[in-house]
Amino acid sequence: MRHIYKIYYETTPEQFEKIYRSRLSYDSTVRLGLFIKPRHQANLYELYYVPTNRMIEQVNRLQALSGTLTMIYSKLPPVARRQFIHEHIVEELYHTNTLEGVNSSREEIAESTRHIETNKSGKTRFGRMIKSYLRLLNGEFAFPQHPNDIRKIYDEITEGEIARNELPDGEIFRKDVTYVKKETGDIIHLGITPESRIIEGMKDLLQFMNQGEDIPLLIKVAVGHYY
């Protein structure tokens, strides 16, 4: 099955609408109740997915690999487990920083992680973020239920890392529009405005993520990240 976004670029608007509506009507289609408005388009589109054999196979494979990893991890001595977690926190935070344009090095993050793990006093760069990873691994985070919970998490992990005049200036999030740009400066994504729409969209997302187990967790994670 061809991805719908590829069909969009290969067909006329009328043909695309016909194919989109047809896919929504499939017996196997799972409609998600989340809506997006693509840039340069007038219509809202409901997100959906069609559980193809390839998708089901990939989900099963990931779950099997996760089970294998858990089994191997459980047999490691405590010192090896700590080192495993330590290295993955470093890699995760380093690549997140790179994606967000934050200057850091693996060595700096590794030193900060050791600082946190040994409970040394004093300010540590990325300390709040590292602590949040450790709390998450220890099951100490409750899943957010309301947009205010998202802001609370944001404030916790960025405390001392962002200048006050750079913090979101809205009721919960931000007032002004934001962009995702290429290195050339070309805009490839435009954030939604006003803030009230961000809040409503976040409510919809949290409702979707907190609903029952009808949709596999891996699919939820992928949909949530995209939305």
Uncertain segments: none
- Number of helices in the DSSP assignment: 9
Radius of gyration from the alpha-carbon trace, in angstroms: 21 Å
Write down the overall mean pLDDT: 89
Biggest sheet strand order reads 1-2
- Count all strands and give the number: 4
Pattern of helices and strands? HHEEHHHHHEEHH
Biggest β-sheet description: 2 strands, antiparallel
Quote the beta fraction: 5-15%
Distance between the termini: 22 Å
Structural class: mainly alpha
Could you say which overall geometry the principal axes of the C-alpha atoms support? globular
The helix content, as a percent range, equals 55-70%
Overview of this structure, please?
Strand 1 (30-36) and strand 2 form a beta hairpin. This protein has 9 helices and 4 strands. It has helices at 4-10, 13-24, 53-74, 78-100, 106-117, 127-137, 147-158, 195-210, 217-226; strands at 30-36, 45-49, 179-181, 187-190. The chain has a two-stranded antiparallel ribbon. The mean pLDDT is 89. The chain has 227 residues and is mainly α.
